[in-house]
Specification:
Blueprint: E1 16-18, E2 21-23, E3 30-32, E4 57-59, E5 77-78, E6 82-83, E7 90-94, E8 98-102, E9 107-109
Antiparallel strand pairs: 1-2, 2-3, 4-5, 4-9, 6-7, 7-8
Length: about 110
């Protein structure tokens, strides 16, 4: 029996090979055998600074907010961000707006 790597997403040992890809049946994650298993996405702001959980950022462009009567103004400071690997990179809470998701291309590290 061959030794297959554990799933990098959930850590499951139940992985199997499907063509040139490894597949995890528990979480559905697929990855290439060529790529390093512990690769992690690097989040960067609009000017190229690396972002981390807990950083403070500033919005650099007026952003329309669905369901709100006003836009999120440029210069709004957002504290204690949380980075996620989704369509929008940043989960945060903004005073006056509540919980929001932002793209890292519209913020600058403060």
């Amino acid at each position: 029996m061959t030794d297959l790597p554990n799933c990098p997403a959930c850590g499951s040992a139940l992985t199997y090979v499907d063509g040139a890809m490894y597949v995890c049946p528990e979480c559905g994650h697929e990855w290439s055998g060529d790529a390093p298993v512990d690769e992690q996405r690097v989040h960067r702001d609009a000017v190229g600074n690396v972002l981390a959980d807990g950083d403070s950022v500033t919005v650099i462009k007026d952003l329309k907010v669905k369901g709100a009567s006003s836009a999120l103004k440029a210069g709004t400071k957002v504290r204690n961000i949380r980075l996620v690997d989704e369509d929008h990179d940043i989960d945060c809470k903004i005073d006056g707006f509540g919980a929001m998701k932002l793209k890292s291309e519209f913020v600058r590290k403060a």
